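Suppose a colleague, Dr. K., hands you the sequence of a protein chain of 385 amino acids and asks what its three-dimensional shape might be. Before reaching for any lab equipment, you can write down a predicted structure in token form. Begin with the sequence itself:
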Amino acid sequence: MKKIYLDNAATTRVDPEVFKAMQPYFSDFYGNPSSVHSFGHEAKKALESARLIAAGFINSDPQEIIFTGSGTESDNMAIKGIAFANHEKGNHIITSAIEHHAVLESCHSLEKSGFEVSYVPADPDGIVNLKELKKAIKKSTVLISVMHANNEIGTIQPVSEIGQIARSNNIYFHIDAVQTFGHLKIDVEDIGADLLSASAHKLYGPKGVGLIYVRRGTKINPLINGGSQENNMRASTQNVPGIVGFGKAIELASRNMEKEAILQTKLRDRLIDGVIATIDRSYLNGDRFKRLPNNASFSFDFIEGEGILLGLDMKGIAASSGSACSSGSMEPSHVLKSIGMANQLARGSVRFSLGRFNTREEIAYTLEVLVEIIDKLRKISPLTK
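The predicted structure, expressed as tokens, is then:
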């Protein structure tokens, strides 16, 4: 049976070149980068090389890059770190209603500690409403946190415009770039970002490694206390093999990103056009064009997304119903509900996210199988009219 992986927004396969680059740091150069001996020096050299690569990729200073354990940790550090460090200035945070749970749950946690959070809505196409964002600003606002692109429906947000709004109001601006880092061009100076989160496993690097960009001069508290690692901003011994892999993944992305975006967009559009043309009562979620090159998210009337995913898996195709962090939840996607979708239709959602190793033949096969599955499920669905 064919095995086709179309869940790259959840995690990507480690690129063979990344794996090869990591291997020596498990067994040959295994020193602690904080140690003063030669073993430590070798590890430290690799660590700083990866930091330099990451900084160059987003046009920042290397000392503004802090390695973490995940994108979720980076989001938590950005939001909680800014909130607690700037509490005397204000206690208000602005985010959007369609953020990843790492951002939303961080904000909910702060609300329990006395902070105020405004959740700005998105329009039916999944784009954050800038008028509502401007209206939400108060004298007590210390942070605006909006994702670069939505992890479920792929919509790319107007982050440069948001950066201008934040800067003109002297408010820190955080971007969750977990879905875009390594896939879209990012220049923190052009965008006006003060903080940015990313994760290695979304761009063919290893799991368990992330980073946060913190603009020099930003007033922020560490999330993890202990030693003086990562410029006193993130205690604990660094995951050197993982960080080396992250650096290699970024290096490969900088070399291949534009070409891959063109190829993935062609495959994505082939899938979108095929689904809309051949499956009745099917709907594309999110803006048709302002979306990630690899994201094709759909909703189907009269059936449950879970049934579609099981049918796809039986045919060797891996997809998802949205965020991997929400898998198993019986509730409709908070993103789809936020853009005004009815619960019944939202429950019939499926996300296909393409990657570096997908082919035209795989997309053709997926479309063929999907048509059969939808037809079969609708014939037995009590919702079909």
